[in-house]
Amino acid sequence: MPITEEIFAAFLKCETKAYLKYSSTLGAQSELSQWRQHQQKEYREACRKLLCSALHAPPFVGTPDLQTLKGQRFDLILDYIVAHGDIHACLDALALSRGKRAKLDCPYTPIRFVPSERLSTDDKLMLAFDAVALSKVYGRTPRAGRIIHGRNQTVATVALFPLLGRIQRVLRAVNDQQTKAVQPTLVLNKHCAECEFQSRCRQVAMQKDDLSLLTSLSPRSGKGRTKKEFSQCSNSPTRSGLRDVRHLRPQSITPH
Ligand code: SF4
Fold first, then answer.
1. Engineering a disulfide at 213: which of 2, 22, 145, 205 sits with its beta carbon 3.0 to 4.6 angstroms away?
2. What is the span of the domain harbouring residue 22?
3. How many domains in the chain?
């Protein structure tokens, strides 16, 4: 089974979550998770508009064939899908760089849209996952990617090469998990409060009679976090000084 973006992201949060998704276990979305999805959808639209407003020609929406991609006809490609062997991903955007260096490396820069103000290590790893997925098709890996994030749509540049070793290790671990098909030991974590498998894991904890697990899975923790995050985030990101997709003014990020 291919490693999808969804399973990779789940594995970064929790091995049990990745296993449950892989085995098609049904979960129930929490209020916080639903709100996040809604926020992501709105933020995505705002970022797409922002990128498109900087172009003189319309972007390509979809997945051009390899010949067209290598022909470098489009400055911006949205919703590029990679379905190549063991990796499946949908990239938010690919921006073409026409610089001399880009001719030697991959000329496309993957871009991700992340609503939160502060970028997490997982955000950067997901961007690196996009880059690895693109390299499967293009044959070269981009050196850097960009994340547009926060209400001011700040553009952060992320060096990707230092993250590639970690991506390969996670890909091997996910592949190993799928091959062996053995359910991982339940390890609760801070993601549980918004996880769709919270009820299922609570039941497991009850069966184990592990009170510490039950405390960690209290629905209160999820509600408290929701209120806090609602007050910190905006669903209507404002426009920043982004003017040209080829001249994004980055805020450099050092990978963790
Ligand atoms: S509820 Fe927690 S332990 Fe269970 S799958 Fe989700 S994140 Fe993992």
1. 205
2. 3-253
3. 1
